[in-house]
Design brief:
Elements (H helix, E strand, L loop, with lengths): L9 E2 L5 H31 L6 H41 L1 E13 L8 E9 L6 E8 H4 L7 E7 L4 E4 L5
Parallel strand pairs: 1-6
Antiparallel strand pairs: 2-3, 2-5, 3-4, 5-6
Helix pairs in contact: 1-2
């Protein structure tokens, strides 16, 4: 018998149209450039296969593989940026205002771009959905003044359990 389990909550970092357009442009440049390089290297490697020794064939295969990986990264960038923008718009349209009670604040490792972070455990509560708890890493410079017991404004999509929390006003 299947049980109807609610989705796992997801903290969304809202993305605006400009950031999405920039990410999609970068992804398209990566994809088109690398896909073109993949085709070029593959065609020349196959065409020169009989005229060269095996070393150059392996080098061509390695270059084609590297180009394919970069093209995949470009396409992934486009798809991820569009999905984040879609989730941002859906949260703005279908979300309800809620509150996030901070249950715990602990240190966290730095982000990929070396920004200091903290880990927040929050309980999200609002109209139209069951309260839930979520733990996530947030940037210290935005949420550094938060302590246990702080109440932050939040917005929640009750269907997808996607939410945002706003930093405290200073």
């Amino acid at each position: 018998m299947a049980t109807d389990r609610p989705r796992e909550p997801v903290l969304l970092d809202p993305k605006g149209p400009v950031i999405t357009a920039i990410a999609c442009t970068v992804g398209a440049v990566l994809f088109l450039g690398a896909a073109g390089a993949f085709v070029y290297v593959t065609v020349h490697t196959v065409a020169d296969f009989d005229r060269s020794d095996g070393v150059w064939a392996w080098a061509g295969a390695g270059l084609a593989l590297a180009a394919a990986i970069v093209a995949y990264g470009g396409m992934s960038t486009i798809l991820f940026a569009r999905a984040e923008r879609r989730a941002t718009l859906q949260l703005a349209a279908q979300g309800v205002d809620a509150t996030a009670l901070v249950l715990a604040v602990t240190s966290a490792p730095p982000s990929n771009d070396d920004h200091d972070q903290i880990r927040l455990l929050v309980r999200i509560d609002g109209p139209g959905f069951e309260p839930f708890e979520h733990s996530s890493e947030v940037l210290r410079y935005l949420f550094g003044s938060v302590t246990q017991g702080t109440v932050l404004p939040a917005r929640v999509n009750a269907t997808t359990r996607t939410f945002t929390i706003e930093p405290p006003t200073t």
